[in-house]
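QUALITY CONTROL LOG
STEP: pairwise intake check
CHECKER ROLE: data steward
CRITERIA: each record must contain a sequence immediately followed by its structure tokens, with no blank fields

ENTRY 1 OF 2
RESULT FIELD BELOW
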Amino acid sequence: MAEALSVDDVAAFIVRSQHSVDRMKLQKLLYYAQSWHLAVFDRPLFDETFEAWGGGPVINSVYQASKAKPTYDITSWDGDPEAVSGQAAALLRAVMAEYASQSAGKLSSRTHNEEPWLVARHGLPDGARSRSKIAAQSMAEFTRRSCTLGGQYAADIAAGGVIGGDFAPDVDDTEPLHDPYARDVVSTLEVGHADVMRRPRRVVPTSVG
């Protein structure tokens, strides 16, 4: 079993892929990256735990590091994006294609309507302070049951299905993913001990809330 990555390496991968991302949006992209990795591979992408803050899921260490940045918009992060490779990088690109075009506010509102954050807050109103932990199992189960990535459920992806979006391993991740539906893709995503080749297909955009 592959070891979990450093959250700073994953954050650096995300920041590089977007060129610039604000503090709140970085937190939400990390949250959905972790949720999907748990759902597909049944193990965390990184070890840090999310807390159910008033503005949505937050990793406190990432919050503290981002506060130390001179601007709200982050253009670099102290981590190694090259440490993220193989199936983790492929899945992260898919997550960026699915979620990165949405604003920080929209992503935050989305998490407020999802079970993991709601359950962790035990009925607290929006905006109320909380340091309650969001359970990894809750994130995985909700994502498997209720979410799709490129039109595929987590079980389909784990079984070797097609993931839509611009995330092929040979894509230059220094380029921001502003139009995830712009072209067909062929991708390789390691599933278990096998490399499964996906054939190109056109992805039809669907509403994501």
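ENTRY 2 OF 2
RESULT FIELD BELOW
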Amino acid sequence: MFGTQRTVAFPMTMGIGFRLGTRRESKNSSASALGDFNALLAATVADPGRAPRYYDTEPYLTQDHDDLEYQLAAGTVGGQQLANRRLTEALLHGGYMVDVAAHVGAPWQPTVGHWEDGRGRGDPHPWGSRRIGLILATRPVAPAVKHYGVHVSAASNEASDHRAIFADVDQPTSLSGSHRRTPHESSV
């Protein structure tokens, strides 16, 4: 099955998607991190002729409710109300990892904020629709990722407050060499 494409579906738990070697063994180690990060990603995208922008827009600008302080960057509560992206900035620091959705230029889709149990009951997210279920890949893995998506169906919406995320990955022939940025990625 060398060079074939397959869909890799990721449940919403933290973990390693696949690992080929370790960082100690090679500067081109291959790994993916995935899960419910409960934080917005700091990945940026570059639109032609425009300054880089966050792939995930600011969802909290006009919100006012309890516990919002845990989602916001320090010093912005009651003011700008900017999302706390520190965790994901650390994961993307130095370009070691990329956000798979931004990397392939996938249309933005929320992974939370839809929750109803199919009978009109449930606990809608007070923070609204957000993308906090994420797939990150190291630079050597990034060229192998061909597609990213969020599974949306009546059954999945009823089953969980987090939607499943998936990626199509071409393995293993694309997992060598260095990574070139796609037109959808920004170096900022």
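INTAKE CHECK: passed for both entries
DESCRIPTIVE NOTE, ENTRY 2: The longest strand covers residues 4-10.
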